[in-house]
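HOLO CASE FILE
Compound: zinc ion
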Amino acid sequence: MSTQATKKPFGVPWETDPFVTPWPEMRPFWAAAAEGRFLMPRCGDCGKYHWHPRAVCPFCHSRKIEWIESPGRGTIFSFSIARTWSPPHAIAFVKTAEEPVILTQLVDCDFDALRIELPVKVKLAPVEAGRWMPFFAPER
Ligand SMILES: [Zn+2]
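Model generated. Tokens follow.
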């Protein structure tokens, strides 16, 4: 019987997180997020931002991807409130100022005050797995 399979992947440093290691092109994102900085990928050839991060530009197929620090501002494109979850969650697509739309969770908000086009700002926060994830909250 193996003893390795009993260790849970939670609480590990982001550098050894099994969600991070298969996608080395994401490492700059996770490293910056752990420092409280939100990076977005931009193509060095066509200049367009994209999300989710990937090694190849989805518009021109260039591999020249640059990481640009973003203030993380956007507006709610659409959202849904999962009231049957415990605790309830607000899941949203946020249209960033840079153009890409990010699937995320809205935090620090009154669910009844949410509306399409509400200005929101990124809020990086640690999750149980050890990574710092980009959530969004209404701008105040
Ligand atoms: Zn491109």
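CASE NOTES: The pocket of zinc ion is lined by residues 43, 45-46, 48, 57, 59-60, 62 (CB under 6 Å). The radius of gyration is 17 Å.
CLOSED: yes
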